[in-house]
Amino acid sequence: MKNLVSVIIPAYNHEKYIQETIQSIIDQTYSNIELIVIDDGSKDSTWEKIQEMKQICENRFSRVVFESQQNQGTCQTLNKLINYTQGEYIYIIASDDIAKPNAIEIEYQFLSRHKNFALCVGDNEFIDEKSKRCYWDTNQNIVYDKLKAQYFTFGHFLQQAIPINFISKEFGRYDKLYQNNHVPNGYLIRKSIFARIGLYVPEAPLEDYWLMLQISKFAKMKFIDKILFSYRWHSTNTVKNREKMISITEKTQQYEKRLLMNSNFKNMLPIVKDVYINGYYYKKIGIPHILECLYYKKNNHTRKIIKLFGQKVFMFEKN
């Protein structure tokens, strides 16, 4: 539906925060919104807290879907949420975070005017369990004194992890994302991109990282240097579980490598060029700055050379 923004919330065990999350969507200055929330088998009173807000949500939004299910995990829940959406744009927010009142409006204004961009995002401030503004020290511990802080926003932290200028064309580029995910939370996505990249897959459990890698193969991303989101830092953040984060990051990277190496990957790449050099027939397929696949054929033999960031990954010959 034209200009409709679908806000989706995968909720799980956030009874303390879910109503504040929903309220932040109610308070959006952008009016044309549908809200879709799925409680993924929470063991606390998250579902009851969601239901308490049904009436006010139905009065505010063009369409409301609240659903509860047995636990299926984040990827499956997000896929279900996306399939329920009717909007032209999708805004994803975790059930413990908060969107600033003008977040969707600012991001929508950009995407509606720049058709070659599929994602737009602003910076994130940090908040604690009581929704109080805070900062990070060197070890990502909460501090309230700005003079003692090492990182003032999530964007500030991410730019230190991978030194690129977020305002430049490097932001959201595949070769930079392949090194490290640097896209903050609170992004608005053009829904049509999912027709090209597909939905989330359990084999890539770090779902936000997988999403950024896939989008960057086909479209640009924009960082807006304004705080449009409050990222809650509390005792149960998944990213605090170091062993789990290492495991799901590695699984996601391994799955991405398999995608790149798959002989069928050429069907999803946007640039195809046929050339003839010294009697050889070449088919060159690639994404600028990312990946190059070169086929050539002579005497009924086909050879394929794949290069990633200018480095040869593998080569094989077949009849």
Describe the structure.
It is globular, with a radius of gyration of 21 Å. It contains ten helices and 15 strands. The longest helix has 20 residues. Helix content is 29%, strand content 31%. It has three domains: 96 residues, Spore Coat Polysaccharide Biosynthesis Protein SpsA, Chain A (Alpha-Beta Complex); 148 residues, no CATH class; 54 residues. It has 319 residues and is of the alpha+beta class.
Q: What are the SSEs and their pairings?
A:
Blueprint: E1 5-11, H1 18-26, E2 33-40, H2 46-52, H3 54-60, E3 63-69, H4 74-84, E4 89-92, E5 98-99, H5 103-113, E6 117-127, E7 133-136, E8 142-143, H6 154-161, H7 174-179, E9 188-190, H8 194-197, H9 207-216, E10 220-232, H10 242-261, E11 271-277, E12 280-287, E13 291-298, E14 301-308, E15 311-318
Parallel strand pairs: 1-2, 1-4, 2-3, 6-10
Antiparallel strand pairs: 4-9, 5-10, 6-7, 6-9, 7-8, 11-12, 12-13, 13-14, 14-15
Helix pairs in contact: 9-10
Q: Rg, please?
A: 21 Å
Order of helices and strands: EHEHHEHEEHEEEHHEHHEHEEEEE
Count of DSSP strands: 15
Q: What is the terminal-to-terminal distance?
A: 49 Å
